[in-house]
Amino acid sequence: MKNDEYVRLGDIIHQTDERNSRLQVTTLMGVNLSKEFMPSVANIVGTDLSKYKIVRKGQFACKLMSVGRDVRLPIALKRTEEPYIISSAYYSFEVNNESEVLSEYLMMHFSREEFDRELWFYSGGDVRGGINWDTFCNVKIYIPPIEKQREIVKAYKTVTDRIKLKRKINDNLAA
After folding, report:
1. Could you tell me the pTM of the whole model?
2. Which one of 1, 13, 71, 101 is least enclosed by Cβ atoms within 10 Å?
């Protein structure tokens, strides 16, 4: 990959499909429209959890089947060490090479409203408002040099951490 260019998602990511075959992971999660993992609300009584996918740190989970209906892509980046399991209806994937594309930078791109609008546009031909994996992989995104990605991620994290701190302070003052 050259530095500072638009690239197809499919050229910088690949699907993961590790199954919970030995039932070693028990934390079942879903992905919400706020682009975060959340505890699943699914009734799993009698469900074979060995068919569920494992998501590990640095991997993404997304649900492509409802982009048109929700006008957003439910997607999340796994940032913590403890693995989760997700439904096999989700796609899971990771970056091919972290020395070329940072997962955190990619998640920032996935969080942009413009990205959601573009996927919503592509979902127009599906009766349920979904897109398929090939369509997702054909979306082009801008990838700056790795040092620039690090600068952008660091600045973004600084701002979001300050916002969280100010909200916490406001909540404490309100209480």
Report:
1. 0.89
2. 1
